[in-house]
Amino acid sequence: MNKEILLSELTYKAVRSSGAGGQNVNKVSSKVVLSFDLENSRGLNFNDKTYLKAKISTKLTQEFILILNCDQDRSQFKNKTTITKRFFEIIEKGLKKPKIRRETKVPRGVKEKRIQDKKFTGSVKENRKKPDF
């Protein structure tokens, strides 16, 4: 993954934001929409692309385009930096390979303790019976 190439492939679009802000909402385009074409990206190799398609498939369109919106701040610049940071977090999280789970053995001491506990419980139950003369 080459971050410089990925950064150059991002396309930003400023849109009028909804929500609170009064007249400012009607005048200023502070909402930022980021779009990234995963299929035609040069910053990712083939294996990374196929892995990302599987991992973040719910966030992609049918043409494998990732679209993110940000309208948290009133500043377009802050929204742009926020959405860029979020984009890289999504990509890095999607490329992270899960650890392989290794099966562990039950320690011998634990097995012996379990058997001792079973024997103790059995002896307690045995002592509840009436004695047989």
Write up what this structure looks like:
The chain contains five helices and three strands, in the order αβαβαβαα. It has 133 residues and is of the alpha+beta class. The chain has a domain at 3-95: Double Stranded RNA Binding Domain (2-Layer Sandwich), CATH 3.30.160.20. A three-stranded antiparallel β-sheet has the order 1-2-3, covered by helices on one side. The longest helix is centred in the C-terminal third of the chain and has 21 residues, at 108-128. The radius of gyration is 29 Å and the shape is elongated. It starts with a helix and ends in a 5-residue tail after the last helix.
Secondary structure layout plus pairing:
Blueprint: H1 3-9, E1 11-15, H2 23-27, E2 31-37, H3 46-55, E3 65-70, H4 76-95, H5 108-128
Structural descriptors:
Double Stranded RNA Binding Domain, 133 residues, three-stranded antiparallel beta sheet
Q: According to CATH, what is the topology of one domain? A: Double Stranded RNA Binding Domain
Strand order of the largest sheet: 1-2-3
Cα-to-Cα separation, first versus last residue:
82 Å
Q: What structural class do you assign from the helix and strand content?
A: alpha+beta
Helix share, percent: 40-55%
Number of DSSP E strands: 3
Low-pLDDT runs: none
CATH class group of one domain: Alpha Beta
- Reading the helices and strands in chain order gives HEHEHEHH
